[in-house]
Specification:
The protein is α/β, with parallel strands linked by helices. It starts with a helix and ends in an 18-residue tail after the last strand. α1 packs across α5. The strands form 2 sheets. Strands 7-6-5-8-9-11-10 form a 7-stranded mixed β-sheet, sandwiched between helices. Strands 2-3-1-4 form a 4-stranded antiparallel β-sheet, covered by helices on one side. β2 and β3 form a beta hairpin. The protein has 3 domains: 116 residues, no CATH class; 56 residues, Sun protein, domain 3 (Alpha-Beta Plaits), CATH 3.30.70.1170; 189 residues, 3-Layer(aba) Sandwich (Rossmann fold), CATH 3.40.50.150. The chain contains 18 helices and 11 strands.
Length: 424
């Protein structure tokens, strides 16, 4: 496979944007595709694969390139020259030949092979930050090595069939007409997995709202909420609204869903997606501090708290999170999660249910948060069920969810005194 010089220039520039410019890889790829609308599918695939694999394995390829490990996360060291060397290490490690260069080659295959055999730390070989490896090992324990390996595998593409407009079988047939092969996902009734990674956003089915792109693990959350038509539901951290849309489909578009978020632009995107999906029961509302909570206090039959988290469960899908996340940020997020759970739980009516969810694999963001909440509210809430998934479970993303029931307080009747016999 040959790489044209202009393509290599774009790859090097994009890696600089991701690591020195701190931009997200998917956005950089999207922007590059818009600038090169004449690129064919082969060029697009080559470019995207190069970026994602270099980002995923950045620290390891940096080592294979002969660059000092201490500098791999230093923006001042991310230059066109070092980015080109990292890409060359990736390319050679896959048994390919570098583009011909009349000057000194960037690297040789022999150099890469020699460095690959050197003894290095587990964190370096797995291409993750030292702090992340230490924290996950401490919290997850013996399961971490296998999970760490699984987290470096590229994620599959899953679709969620919009059951308001069709079923899974008919959707598979339509995808086949578009040239996409998809298979049903066991135990996830709404999910299809693409056999090959392909761009489905330009298909008529997507534009007609017949499906959404959504990981299979994420598709387990809305059913876990146990909704029914006619209910009042609050999605308090709605974001772009993937789970709110799925919830609306399970409710057969009957009832009311309040989709809340602190970012107005995310709610605007949700409105577009809802219109495409044929959903009209979602009301978006930007969060205005405590006033929003007070207005909705004891209002909802169901509340979903898909809280901000480290995102360590979706590293396969968003590998640049490894390089943009810091341990201090994880600690800050844990404080925020506890605050959200404490405050937003007030929106559940007595007898209603709350689902706390993250896309993290850290117990400190998951079951520990729920346990601490229950300790703060004895006799008020009850843990009904928990869900956990990792990439070791069917190739899904990693996530956690807990369903809590708000206990209905009942007033016990006063004991009735026994009748005393009348005096003779």
């Amino acid at each position: 496979m040959k790489v044209p010089p202009h393509m290599l220039d774009e790859i090097v520039n994009a890696l600089g944007e991701v690591f020195a410019g701190r931009r997200y890889a998917d956005r950089v790829i999207e922007f590059t595709f818009k600038r090169h609308r004449k690129w064919g599918s082969r060029d697009r695939r080559l470019f995207a694969e190069s970026i994602y694999e270099c980002v995923r394995w950045w620290r390891w390829f940096w080592h294979l390139a002969g660059l000092p490990d201490a500098a791999h996360a230093n923006p001042d060291e991310i230059t066109p020259e070092t980015c080109a060397k990292v890409w060359a290490a990736y390319w050679l490690s896959h048994g390919r030949e570098l583009p011909h260069d009349d000057h000194d080659p960037l690297l040789t295959a022999a150099e890469v092979q020699k460095r690959a055999k050197q003894k290095v730390s587990d964190a370096l070989r797995a291409s993750i930050p030292d702090w992340m490896d230490a924290r996950c090992s401490a919290e997850i324990g013996a399961a971490w090595p296998a999970l760490r390996e699984a987290m470096n595998q590229p994620a599959d593409v899953f679709l969620r069939v919009n059951t308001l407009k069709g079923d899974r079988r008919s959707m598979r047939e339509k995808l086949a007409e578009y040239g996409f092969e998809a298979e049903a996902v066991e135990d996830v009734p709404s999910a299809l997995r693409l056999v090959q990674r392909q761009n489905v956003f330009s298909t008529p089915g997507f534009k007609e709202g017949l499906f959404e792109v959504q990981d299979a693990a994420s598709q387990l959350i809305a059913p876990f909420l146990e909704v029914a038509p006619g209910m009042k539901v609050i999605d308090a951290c709605a974001g772009g609204g993937g789970k709110a849309l799925h919830t609306a489909a399970l409710m057969r578009n009957k009832g009311k869903i309040h989709a809340l978020d602190v970012h107005a632009w995310k709610l605007a995107e949700l409105k577009k997606r809802a219109a495409r999906a044929g959903v009209d029961i979602i009301e978006t509302r930007e969060i205005e501090g405590s006033k929003t909570i007070k207005r909705l206090a004891a209002h909802a039959d169901r509340v979903l708290l898909d809280v901000p988290c480290s995102g360590l469960g979706v590293l396969r899908r968003n590998p640049d999170t490894k390089w943009k996340l810091a341990e201090d940020e994880v600690n800050r997020l844990q404080g925020l999660q506890a605050e959200i759970l404490e405050n937003y739980s007030r929106m559940v009516r007595p007898g209603g249910k709350l689902v706390y969810a993250t896309c993290s694999i850290l117990p400190g963001e998951n079951e520990h948060q729920v346990q601490q909440f229950l300790l703060r509210h004895p006799g008020e809430w009850e843990l009904e069920a928990e869900l956990r998934r990792t990439p070791l479970d069917g190739g899904f993303d990693g996530f956690y969810a807990a369903r809590l029931v708000k206990i209905t307080r009942t007033v016990e009747p006063l004991p009735v005194a026994e009748e005393l016999p009348m005096a003779a």
